[in-house]
Amino acid sequence: MSNVRQALAEQLAEAVFQALAEDLTRQERALLIVSGGSTPVPFFKALAAKPLPWSRIDITLADERWVDEQSSDSNAKLVRENLLQGAAANANFVPLTSDASTPEEGVEEVAKRTASLSWPASVVILGMGGDGHTASLFPDSLELGLALSTDEPLVAVRTPSQPQPRITFSAGRLHQAHRHILHITGDDKRSVLANAMNGDDVRKLPIRAFLSCPLAIYWAP
Ligand SMILES: O=C(O)[C@H](O)[C@@H](O)[C@H](O)[C@H](O)COP(=O)(O)O
């Protein structure tokens, strides 16, 4: 981990800490939505060390692979091992998978489970892939149009470029959050983001769906 990426993770953790603490002065509970992937790990560790009243915080994921929670591809496993540590283990974490064998069969149950969270979310932290996807809104996903337009909170997605089916919060549900943050690193993602900012086709670079939320960008080389 380069020093500058570590510093970025720590600055992001401080910003998320402040946002959650501020919302908790006005409301009993606050919801944080995080993303999986490799980028957030140092952020998760830095946030877990913050002195928050963790038992008043709900945490869920922007999206998840439809895999067992023990799988190394599970975002829930990533969150449990890196964020829900120490005092942060007292947070109420709600995963996005069920015992159903497909996300299409399980999506309704997960929607019921997540309905009890403290919506609207205080903060959504998004990642972005080299193809411009964010959450599980992939350019080649068969359900991209649905995920961008539905009023439903969650969508089961099938994506030819991805090995597993997934479940994702819809763009509409993620839009409702009070704050949106994009956490990315590296020159390749900077170029993808620049293309998204210059282009106009959300289906080619789905991160575009969040550019005017407004979106705070946390980037480091
Ligand atoms: O993988 C996931 O769980 C998320 O669906 C995805 O949107 C992720 O945020 C990007 O793919 C970036 O991943 P990296 O941080 O690993 O580059």
Automatic annotation (TrEMBL):
It is an enzyme of class 3 (hydrolase). Pathway: Carbohydrate degradation; pentose phosphate pathway; D-ribulose 5-phosphate from D-glucose 6-phosphate (oxidative stage): step 2/3. Residues 5-211 form the Glucosamine/galactosamine-6-phosphate isomerase domain. One of its GO terms (biological process) is carbohydrate metabolic process. The keyword Cell membrane does not apply. Gene3D superfamilies: 3.40.50.1360. GO terms for molecular function: 6-phosphogluconolactonase activity. It catalyses: 6-phospho-D-glucono-1,5-lactone + H2O = 6-phospho-D-gluconate + H(+). It comes from the Bacteria. The keyword Ubl conjugation does not apply. SUPFAM superfamilies: NagB/RpiA/CoA transferase-like (SSF100950). Keywords: Hydrolase. Its EC number is 3.1.1.31. Belongs to the glucosamine/galactosamine-6-phosphate isomerase family. 6-phosphogluconolactonase subfamily. NCBIfam families: pgl (TIGR01198). PANTHER family: 6-PHOSPHOGLUCONOLACTONASE. Hydrolysis of 6-phosphogluconolactone to 6-phosphogluconate. This is 6-phosphogluconolactonase. The lineage of its organism: Bacteria, Pseudomonadati, Pseudomonadota, Gammaproteobacteria, Oceanospirillales.
